[in-house]
Amino acid sequence: MQNNQKIDTTEFRLSDNLENFPREIFDLSDTLELLDLSGNRLTGLPDDFGRLKKLRILFLSNNAFTQIPQVLSECPELTMIGFKSNQITLWPEDAMPAKVRWLILTDNRIEKLPDSIGKLKYLQKLMLAGNQISTLPDTMNHCKNLELIRLSANRLEKLPEWLFTLPRLAWLACAGNPCTSIPLPDTNTLAEIAWEDISLHEELGEGASGVISRGAVGDENFAAIKIFKGEVTSDGYPADEMSASISAGKHHNLNTPYGKVSEHPEEKEALVFPLIPSIYCNLGNPPNFDSCTRDIYDEEASFTPSRIVRITSDVISAAVHLHERGINHGDLYAHNILVDKSGHSLLGDFGAATLYDHSLYGRSFEQLEVRAFGCLLEDLLDHCVVEDDIQLDKVKSLEKLKAECMEEVVEKRPSLSEIMIQLTI
Q1: Cross-strand partners of 325
Q2: Average pLDDT, stretch 232-246?
Q3: CATH says 186-274 is which class?
Q4: Fewer CB within 10 A of the end CB, N or C, for the chain?
């Protein structure tokens, strides 16, 4: 064990083109908590894998598994499992450990979920984009702690009604399925910008769906150019992200494109966005292993009640605009919100967005987005600084609004428009 190896008493990582499970790992069975064997050629796990009694996190992405190993159920402390980009077709009944919270099965060939998924009462985050799933088992209705689910790029003909009644579900992505395939409005076409008229400068960032670079359109107009990779991501197809970004149109609290690149030399899809000034920064950071579905904030992060109102009012304004157009953002998080010192906010990243038909789904998607907003509001209130009684009264009203948005009886939640009115009072 040499290449790319990192080892201590609690964590072990190895990517070395392995075809067989390294038995030496069992020497760490008394202490090992995280095991990462991604990027190998493994097809199975040993029958005595359950010896790793303290294992909490297991990554086996980019291997050659064709089914989920039944032996995982014998690991009592396993809470996070990743099998992204394997060749899995079979998910056997009762293969998952009871305590699993975070399950990543993106980019496989799964056609059917087991009925036993309903037994996973701690499941919070389920990543299933890029499979061949056509139906969801009704037993999933028992997954009452499920908060985030990615169902994009599958074969779902229908979304079951119970999905929208799950009490804690807030972040749903299901684009790229027959049940959510609707044509783009003709009014949302973008101006085409020839590749030869664009000059790229430094890279600004890279996400699952593409690379964003600073560039110039013509001689002086600086912009952000996002070049899409093309393959399925944890959120779904990049093409669906493009469709949602274009359909969103212009809004002062949204980061949406104003142009589409044509004649790319490698025939890649690309969009042109306004270049956001450097005075804006991310409101929060993505979830970590422990927080699972909730964003992480810098230790020094603090917000006054008035700043919270400014930020959330902007976010709600953007959300109302999107849902009026039949767009569920699906990833309404602080790490997807840019904010300046005044509190002006921009909601971006449409990777998990879903275009939906109001006549089919009514307020179902909106009610999920309301809970996501409630989670955001809760996080900001957790970092709130109160200086006087007037501010304290405002906090109390925000706490009440948060509780209404996070109401577990979905039908009792306020609409996005009602929230916008409350924030202005």
Answers
A1: none
A2: 92
A3: alpha beta
A4: C
